[in-house]
Amino acid sequence: MTNRRANYINMVDHLTDIPLTNIEKETNLTRESPYRQNFHIESESGSLGDPNGFSYFNKNYHLFYQWSPLEFSQNPHYTHHGWKHLCSPDLIHWQDLGAGMESDTRYDKYGTYSGSAFPVDDKLFIMYTGNTWVNTESDDDWQRIPYQIGAWMEANNKIKKVCTPFITGTLKGYTGHFRDPKVFKKHDKYYAVLGIQRNNQTGSAVLAESDDLHNWQILGEIKTNHNKFGYMWECPDYYELDDKGILAFCPQGLESEDNKFCNIYQSGYLIGKPLNMSDRNFVCGKFHELDKGFDFYAMQTTKDKKGRRILMAWMGLPEIVYPTVKYHYTGCMIFPRELKLENNVIVQQPVAEIKDLYSKKYQITASLNNKRIEIKAGKQNSRDIELAIVGHNDATILDLFANKNNSRHLRLIFNRKKQKFIVDRSCSGLEIASSYGTSRSCYLDQSKLIKVRILQDVSSAEIFLNNGKEVFSMRIFPDDMQNFIYLTSENGEAKIKATINQLKVSKVGMSLKDN
Amino acid sequence: MTNRRANYINMVDHLTDIPLTNIEKETNLTRESPYRQNFHIESESGSLGDPNGFSYFNKNYHLFYQWSPLEFSQNPHYTHHGWKHLCSPDLIHWQDLGAGMESDTRYDKYGTYSGSAFPVDDKLFIMYTGNTWVNTESDDDWQRIPYQIGAWMEANNKIKKVCTPFITGTLKGYTGHFRDPKVFKKHDKYYAVLGIQRNNQTGSAVLAESDDLHNWQILGEIKTNHNKFGYMWECPDYYELDDKGILAFCPQGLESEDNKFCNIYQSGYLIGKPLNMSDRNFVCGKFHELDKGFDFYAMQTTKDKKGRRILMAWMGLPEIVYPTVKYHYTGCMIFPRELKLENNVIVQQPVAEIKDLYSKKYQITASLNNKRIEIKAGKQNSRDIELAIVGHNDATILDLFANKNNSRHLRLIFNRKKQKFIVDRSCSGLEIASSYGTSRSCYLDQSKLIKVRILQDVSSAEIFLNNGKEVFSMRIFPDDMQNFIYLTSENGEAKIKATINQLKVSKVGMSLKDN
């Protein structure tokens, strides 16, 4: 635990306490990165983590995220933690509103941990977890005390914290791992679902209730059929789609099961009848992974004015070291997705607003028999690719981020013979988390038409199979010559129809006028 | 089907009909390959396939294999197919006895397909499938007529075919895919188990019976709980270990299931009570893959004078193109393994005779915390590596076939956090069958000591986990600078004990005196 103390030596409450030159040193280095995204939210320096307070309020989408802008600063190393604040009228163009919340009170001194936001009349209510430590004089026996606390944001985007915690410490029978309140409203009452760890080292979610968003009462655990499912549940979310209830959360500590649960931590959901608020029974089936890719965590949803359920998530994972650390930043968000229900599972699609980023359009129809073709669709790795494949072959292979001779690529394999989809990033560029494997896969029926959609950015790909029934999100760190696309049919014929839209740059932090 | 006819234009019955210079052209090219193995059986030119007639007879192990020595010959392209014959006193040093059987009769003109051998007094009985085609004048309607035929080998290794087929054509209700008789003896009767395809395009195994090895009677299908399990079963084998019956076979046409059945075709077994010979009921459980690696097929066993059940198999797969084709050869055998039963599953280990190949021994004890070390164990990729790992980390990584900077390697990942073993050959050298994925994996309990054994040859690795409970076999085609070994512990400490024996060269085809 000595390292922990070292982390806090130059801890500052406010970003304004840090000399501007030190901050600029970080942002200048980050700007040099060849991996900066074109249309995904990322941090202008330091680390980006969980999305927080995702909401539609005052004619704008608001998004906060876990932010440590000085995470990689050196000589001296500063520690500063808070919530970055962004807002957007359209989920595409985001304005950077700076440090929305900072770790500046006795209840959140050691971390303005994750939380959510909920619009109430002309204000936005924010509820989050403040992290604190006691017994910090000891070398190895720091004790975690969590506080569930709140804040209110006005229409002018000014945020004021509530002075007293709603819930102090943890609950009886549980450890100090108690966090990430997600607020929702049902039957004119407010509720929050929170992640918690039982003393027996299993994870769960508890429900809290409030009439006034000030006095909160713990109701107890949400009762599911997943009582021994990881040692901690982070970032729970509860919402309803059609007539179903969805309890989403991020279980930590699951062992791999075949080709499931391959990442360091998981993200997924239970689906069932709407949660019974009186007895907290949630009658549900098995746990579904929301995203089967390499990099996806801490998802959070909100409902917008159009009634859509929109998903945001961190395209990254805790503890995984990404190669952008060299440029003193790490992490990005997924592109926002709309969630719908189809045959009792969630299907995901990029929000329709993406069309406003379309620039040049390429349409390709091809029939290839046992051969490889190049697909020409501009030089920028910023594309919305839609592909329809009818195979009479053993396998169809789509290589993205390919170099000219195709020795490097992100490889998407549609193996018809094995009815399997594989995404293989082993030869895609810099190594990332290879001890968790370099490919991900799922069953894919290829007896009929396969539909694939891929959002490709400078250093990421989000793959949507069959209208978003299966999604794979991932970071890739290619060389700058890796902008070719190849398509191969092995042992037989594949008929292909592709529509590829180049996407305009919509970098975060730009003033909206610039775009 | 026009291609099929093209294949037979220069078909010759006997190798001796081909000019010696044309054969030498092939073997000379093969000798230039940098991928030639040091202690695994491979073909001196052309293709090596299924092991056949594996037996212990006249103080020697006899092994045949499917052999097309002119498979890659050009200008002119010759077609010749038969069984290569090898024999060995010790399963290590093999003498090349040339073309044991050739496709030279009207019953095996289009292929001396797979079969088995069984010692009877002072002779070796051979039973195999002869492939023939009728209606070959048509372009696209060739009909396959299989014959189950035999031969007898004398103590002087001379083989004489039996003039009349034992079984002509296929059975009623079945297609022409009827082959690969494996002979065994039970209760003083001879039996053969054969692979067959039902008219409804599902695979099965049938049992034939004989008192005299000449008059054979079809008894019917072996009745298992696997009635819809692939479209064809190749290379069946039946044997007993302890008090259990094993029905091994190679099902074709299985879809992938999670991380199972990833290769183009599968190899595995059902285990149950000994086969009831009168009603052919085989009461058994689920299908186990015998080898979870990339390259393993058409296994065949025999019992030797010590009572051991020895396994041979092709370290390769049908239809997969290996990069050695450039040197006009392909395929090799696994190193022979002894099979035992443990908790109702087969466990596999290299035969103990391998110790006779040991030359220099390296012993390494190391404790590494969050770091990478090089393990020095000679420059030749010919090693028997035994490793014991106790991890208090997230993952331990063993890189074999590594280049100096470790950008290329065969990577073995022991991910403790996910209780998963992964072998990743994506960055190991030349690309092989990447549309079937570049990694294979299984569950591996890492709460206790992990034992790993690896037989490493110039272009292959056979990985035995926990005393051979899980085995992964694979080909690798590295650069010649890829002879480093690295060991890494991620996020914590790993204690390692390694014993590495360099292995002597024991190439097939050398006269025994040379060794």
Describe the structure.
Chains A, B: InterPro entries: ConA-like_dom_sf, GH32_Enzymes, Glyco_hydro_32, Glyco_hydro_32_C, Glyco_hydro_32_N, Glyco_hydro_beta-prop_sf, Suc6P_hydrolase. Chains A, B: This is Sucrose-6-phosphate hydrolase. Chains A, B: GO terms for molecular function: beta-fructofuranosidase activity. The structure is a homodimer of 515-residue chains. Chain A is mainly beta and 515 residues long. In chain A, a hairpin with a 5-residue loop joins strand 7 (143-153) and strand 8 (159-161). In chain A, the strands form seven sheets. In chain A, strands 23-34-25-30-31-32 form a six-stranded antiparallel sheet, with no helix packed on it. In chain A, strands 24-33-26-27-28-29 form a six-stranded antiparallel sheet, with no helix packed on it. Chain A has two domains: 2-353, 5 Propeller (Tachylectin-2, Chain A); 358-503, Jelly Rolls, CATH 2.60.120. Chain A contains two helices and 34 strands. Chains A and B meet through strand 27, strand 28 and strand 29 of A and strand 27, strand 28 and strand 29 of B.
